[in-house]
Amino acid sequence: MKRKHALKDVEFWIDNSEILHCTFKNVTNNNYKLSLSIVKRYINIVAKLCDGKPMPFLIDLREAKGTFSILAAKLLASSPKLKQVRLSEAYIVNSMKMKLVINTYKRIYEPVTPFQFFDNLEDGIEYCLTIKKDIYGGEH
């Protein structure tokens, strides 16, 4: 691991292959709603970790429950800080509910960034590496 930032319910880190990992761990509250203030904090952490360098995001939601507020979704989609560093998104999911939440978010708020769903980390990492290779020709 190269750089890391951990909070109560989420960890962010960048590995040696220059993939931003986000692992959410809200396993107890189905009614949890990610707020605007928390999203602002997450965006600042991601921007600091990426340090202006675009990279794929690997977002592990297998232990996540809940959804996000409309304002939070809009900020995630439109943040200039994220647009600068987000090449693609690989979502690791294990529930239909979470897949529906993300599909709805992508369709309504952020249809531009390429994304895929996976049920395991290995396939998600492979997708991220393929995106990097396609964009940078394996030299990034």
Question: Could you walk me through the main structural features you see in this protein, from its secondary elements to its overall organization?
Answer:
It is a single chain. Helices cover 42% and strands 25% of the residues. It is built from 5 helices and 8 strands; from the N terminus they run E-E-E-E-H-E-E-H-H-E-H-E-H. Helix 1 (36-50) runs parallel beside helix 2. The longest helix has 16 residues, at 121-136. It starts with a strand and ends with a helix.
Keywords:
six-stranded mixed β-sheet, alpha/beta, two-stranded parallel ribbon, 140 residues
Overall pLDDT score: 91
Overall geometry comes to: globular
Specify the biggest β-sheet.
6 strands, mixed
**Strand content bin:** 25-35%
Q: Strand order, main sheet: write it out.
A: 1-2-3-5-7-8
- Give the proportion of residues in helices: 40-55%
Radius of gyration: 14 Å
Q: Spell the H/E element sequence.
A: EEEEHEEHHEHEH
Number of distinct beta strands: 8
- The end-to-end distance, rounded to whole angstroms, is 17 Å
Instruction: Tell me the structural class.
Output: alpha/beta
Please, how many helices?
5
Flag low-confidence runs.
none
How would you summarize the topology of this molecule?
Elements: E1 3-6, E2 10-14, E3 20-24, E4 33-34, H1 36-50, E5 55-60, E6 67-68, H2 70-78, H3 80-85, E7 86-92, H4 96-108, E8 115-118, H5 121-136
Parallel strand pairs: 3-5, 4-6, 5-7, 7-8
Antiparallel strand pairs: 1-2, 2-3
